[in-house]
Amino acid sequence: MPELPEVEFAARRLRTWAVGRTVSAAEAEPGSPLRDVTPEALAEGLTGRRFEGVRRHGKLLMIDLSGDRVLLSHLGMTGKWLRSKPGDTPRAGTRVQLALDDGARLDYVDPRRLGHLRWLPADEARRHPMVTGLGPDALEICATAGGLAEQLDWSKRAIKVALMDQSLVAGVGNIYAAEALWMAGINPFVRACDLEPDDYARLAAAIARAMTESLDRERDGEIRYIQDRAAQNPFEIYGRTDAPCPRCRAAIMRVLQQQRSTFYCPVCQPDR
DNA sequence: CTTATCCCCTGCCGGC
DNA sequence: TGCCGGCAGGGGATAA
Fold this sequence. Notes:
Layout: H1 4-18, E1 23-28, H2 39-46, E2 51-57, E3 60-65, E4 69-74, E5 80-84, E6 94-100, E7 105-109, E8 116-121, H3 122-127, H4 129-132, H5 138-142, H6 147-152, H7 159-163, H8 174-184, H9 197-218, E9 253-257, E10 260-264
Antiparallel strand pairs: 1-6, 2-3, 3-4, 4-8, 5-7, 6-7, 9-10
Helix pairs in contact: 1-9, 8-9
The chain binds a DNA duplex (16 and 16 nucleotides) through helix 8.
């Protein structure tokens, strides 16, 4: 579920909760989203380590621990890091529990198990395809003049599909692709190679704006994913099939693109 | 090489 | 009321 803003928010919370703290006990569930590490090895590896920092690139969290070890954490569709107390009953979908030396507990919760956790020496983490396979971070590249176009304008795929390819630009998912293309007035099916430099400039600004707005909205609250309840949906067009376009009142369309829902306004985002 | 398709998982919702 | 299909913000593996 999380895209760049939600993962950034998770990184900030993890920093305040964990950096400087030491893991006093760890427990991981078999069958959890652990990759290339057993629950026992992860729990044993984490115990006694101190959190040194939390970095984010695109949707990937890189959690640095003492002794030059890194926990790579990708939240997938339903992953979250939450703080609780040692006695609390774990909420459904809890896969990892870390007791910290300040008396708090860190829980990795991932009901659908589509997330990824990897436990690696720092140098291996740096070289891991999960890290090296990512394109530039979306917020950074969108702040660079011409940067977004340089990443995408050679591709013959639909701009929405190319935008969501994490090896080209890291951090844009289904929601922010829809929101940004709507803000920029670009049809999601136009080939990336057919967009003009001016289109890319508007698109980069739109991505930055859509993501920044979410970060501002989430600053003081808990991450809250939309439920299909229109009243809670904070987005302009995502999830709003048949609702009037906020700009022109035409009905928002929902179509499938690469097996994922694409939302757009047929009037504000015309074919070309 | 790039691109398209299927698959992985669980939970919720609306329709019959 | 209960079952069933569709859908969900993720990426990886595989085939063309």
